[in-house]
Amino acid sequence: MTRLNLLCAAAVAAVAMPLAAETHSVEPGESAQERLQEALILAQPGDEVVLGAGRYDLSDGLSLDVDGVTVRGAGMDETVLDFTGQQGSGEGLLVTSDNVTLRDFALENPKGDGVKSKGADNIVYHRVRVTWTDGPDANNGAYGIYPVESTGVLVDGSKVSGASDAGIYVGQSRDITVRNSIAEANVAGIEIENSRNALVENNIVTRNTGGILVFDLPDLPVMGGGNVVVRQNLVVANDTANFAPPGNIVASVRRGTGVLVMANDKVLVENNIFDNNPTSHVMVIAYTQPFEDERYNPHAREVVIGQNLFGRGGDDPQLDGAEMLLAAFGGALPPVMWDGVAEGESGLVVVPGIAGWTLNLAEPGQDLATAQPGPLQVPAPENEFDMSGIGAPAELENRLK
Description:
This protein has 401 residues and is mostly beta strands. The chain has a domain of 262 residues. It contains three helices and 32 strands. The strands form two sheets. It has a 20-stranded parallel beta sheet that branches. The longest helix has 14 residues. The protein is elongated.
């Protein structure tokens, strides 16, 4: 083989062979903003950006748009990205690439959202903490952990507190697992919105206005949320006054709501522990606002309330006519509340032995003054809930090692 042929063959081989993954190490200190953003820009697929322990004082948001990158800190209490001095109003970290893993670091006091990933398929958030250190405040960022428009989302072992909308929010996405996480002192602890095939399990949601929200809203690019399972969560003491900015959809969530299902399809709530949620442990309602989106269905459909452990609750409901309701129900409202609005015969089913009450409304948006509260009388489930296809892809588990 000639020298020229040898050189050509070597060049072809070099192109065909993937480059070895590299580690980009960043430590706190002077010019941390520039060094960290540079590492996120220079990273190639398969690389790791490793953040040393310490506090990083950052003045602007960060961004990552390279596929297959891992951003790894020394721990959610050891590596802290501090955005207290952030000049802009955007998120702390924006991810717009696929197959990204974010793990073992914290973000504090971002001016906007904590970590937002948009159109980022197969993303993993593992032991990520987002905290607004002054506690509940309408000026805090809206969302802590915020994946949107994604297929394949795993949030595991994370913690968010102080979000003025939702601590952990997954929107317009599918194939989702949110587990083993803590959502505390947010307006909504965990929210699944306009998303399908979501599993919310083994989380602690406490001191929020509302613990876990499963919503479907009109006029969004992705519609038709459903196939959501909420199980084995500790949903306790969600009693923080609502601090969402006026006009926000969650500004209407009543203080003391455990789980709220609104206008969603095929939702299972089972094997959770509820205690000290003063308005209601579980609420199932239709969407009540006017809308023009012809794709939208405002009814809650095929919502199943399975066996749960219900403790104290419903004893300080933030509802009109609360005194009369409490008197009618002996001092505390039953654990399950339904507005009574159903599409055909599909609406709410509850396993035998669980008490509930209903407003007996006939249509979405009906004046609450026309409600006729009474005991809940709905059928029991006839079939097992179909769990097939629910949750994040199994291959995302491999990144937790």
